[in-house]
Amino acid sequence: MARPFNFSAGPAALPLEVLEQAAAEMLDWHGSGVSVMEMSHRGRDFMSICEQAEQDLRDLLAVPSAFRILFMQGGGLGQNAIVPMNLMGRSASHTADFVLTGSWSIKSQAEARRYGEAHIAATLKGEHPVRLPPPSSWQLSEKASYVHLCSNETIDGIEFQELPDLRVLGCDAPLVIDCSSHIASRPIDWSRIGLAYAGAQKNIGPAGLTLVIVRDDLLGHALPICPSVFDYRTVADQGSMFNTPPTYAIYMAGLTFQWLKRQSESGLTGLAAIEARNVAKAKLLYDCIDGSRLYRNHVDPSCRSRMNVPFFLADEALTEPFLARAREAGLLQLKGHKSVGGLRASLYNAMPIEGVQALVRHMHAFEAIHA
User: Fold this and answer.
1) Is 104 one of the annotated active-site residues of the chain?
2) Which domain holds residue 117?
3) What is the pLDDT of residues 205-252, one digit of tens each?
4) How many CB atoms lie within 10 A of CB 67?
5) Cβ atoms of 252 and 19 closer than 8 Å
6) What is the rounded CA–CA span in Å between residue 60 and residue 133?
């Protein structure tokens, strides 16, 4: 029986090859006689899995040696507290700047208020189509400990196609990005950021693992109230082993990193190949929406997300019939987030072009009946 196409925003689809390899190794990893789930996190076998995953991620994203890769827990929402507890102490005023571009960055700013001054440097203006505020318009604090933005808003379908260079704006604070929903889908310009964090459950692996990639000079500034298990310096010094890490999620992420490195597309390999594939998938779906009288997307093309595509029907009463027919066609998890309604297709790395083609065929067929 053919597998359906899963457009869930997270936990999301994993590459079939990864699932098949994990299934084959479930009871006995490489002749060890045990499952990865049963391994001691400090044993030789799991340490080799963890070290390989870290190195593959560093290779894949071209992470410079000046950055530490941490395997943590708590997801993006957890980092909304852990980041300010680690970085707000860099300024005497305990101030951080926030660029609010959607639901997740709003949550980040709200949580940071518990630990210091969370200044809003920029926000959307409510215009349609939605456009990102240009960095030249941001009102940055003079002594901010960091500047935070969500580089891809999963719910709202808004993505920074290029990260801002704060130095051009006369700001020497490090840029912190929540890249949960598009990590490993495109390159990251590490010269422009100080810290990147991402929940793994959208584009990397199963829920439970959180990736933190932090520049060395940002370690060691934790507030006194910061628990040891969330202190980046402690986690880095202990090689992500201060407490028991999410071992199986790390293993699954490691398999995904290896899968990503094997990808090829039009002469490209690895991350470049995945990015080219993601560009093609997003274009196919947006072209369908833009050429339609029935479907609408409210985001300006300059900042449309490649990963998360929200869209709406001209007649909202048709949403449930659309979803019912989609499920019959093997197209799952297309309902929009409860806070905004409508529809949403998440086109993460594991979504093949065939899945997007099937969705577009369904959209055309549905429009032919209801337009």
Assistant:
1) yes
2) 17-260
3) 999 999 999 999 999 999 999 999 999 999 999 999 999 999 999 999
4) 20
5) no
6) 30
Spot the catalytic one: 178, 259, 281, 335. Answer: 178
The verdict on residue 2 lying in a domain is no
Indicate which residue of 202, 231, 281, 335 is catalytic: 202
pLDDT in tens, 325-357: 999 999 999 999 998 999 999 999 999 999 999
**What does the buried/exposed string (b/e) look like for 308-346 if buried means 16 or more CB atoms within 10 Å of the residue's CB?**
bbbbbbeeeebbeebbeebeebebbbbbbbeeeebbbbb
Task: For residue 70, give the H/E element and its range.
Answer: strand 67-72
CATH of the domain at 159: 3.40.640.10
> Catalytic site residue 202?
yes
Q: Do 136 and 147 meet the contact criterion of CB atoms below 8 Å apart?
A: no
**Residue showing tokens 């580089």:** 151
Same domain, 33 and 86: yes
Query: Do you find a cis peptide bond into 11, omega within 30 degrees of 0?
Result: yes
Task: Say whether pTM exceeds 0.85.
Answer: yes
Do 366 and 242 fall into the same domain? no
Is residue 283 domain-resident? yes
Active site residue 138: no
Q: How many domains does the chain have?
A: 2
